[in-house]
Amino acid sequence: MVFLENISQGKPFPEIQPVSVMVEDCVFAPWLSVVREHQPIHIQNMDPIIHDVQIYETAPFGPKVMLHRPLRLNPFHPKDVLKDHAHKTGEAMIDTIHFTQGRRTFFLECGFHPYMQAWGLAITNPYYAVTDEQGNFTLPDIPEGVYNMLTWHPGMAGFLDMKVVVLANENLKTRIEFQEPKNRQVAHTTMSSSYRFGTKALEREGAVIDIQVTHEEQSHGKN
Fold this sequence. Notes:
- The chain starts with a strand and ends in a 19-residue tail after the last helix.
- Strand 2 and strand 3 form a beta hairpin.
- The chain has one helix spanning 199-204; strands spanning 2-5, 19-23, 28-29, 32-35, 40-45, 51-58, 64-71, 93-96, 105-110, 117-122, 128-129, 145-152, 159-166.
- It has one helix and 13 strands; from the N terminus they run βββββββββββββα.
- The chain has one domain (2-204): Cupredoxins -  blue copper proteins (Immunoglobulin-like), CATH 2.60.40.
- The protein is mainly beta.
- The longest helix has 6 residues, at 199-204.
């Protein structure tokens, strides 16, 4: 993700809306949420099992629990179908984003399923972009000035900070490159090889079991 700091002019923030996180087949979506301080967050479960939602605000000086609550199973999920989500969403878990001690990133995981992981970053102005798979991004409509442009990726240990000079009616092109961390031990790289659903529990509900282990690899192309 790429965003500007120290900008007090230009376009206003859009009206604040709840940030939405969906749980489907034991995957949090989106993997990266862009949030604002005191923004409502709605987490909904499409799965026929309970999840243990844990959100930790993170920083180099240490994490802190932001939220830790069970997410009820979806009562509308058909008992004999595993991959069909044409049913209603479950009741949303509703809370509010609040950071402390200058933190601005959070890590979201399920305490029951360690491979379920996602991230969030707080912004203070509308000049931000999540890169595409190739790392490309565009920040339009920036007023003329000198700004700090920060780049962040959860797997790259911290922020990259560079000065940019934006001139009126001109396009600025830049290249940002992360150095591969030597000892990457962040939470979202600890993938589990166990099944997403406990087969015994599902069989008790009458489900026909045909499960393949299909953990997604988290791409490092997005910032």
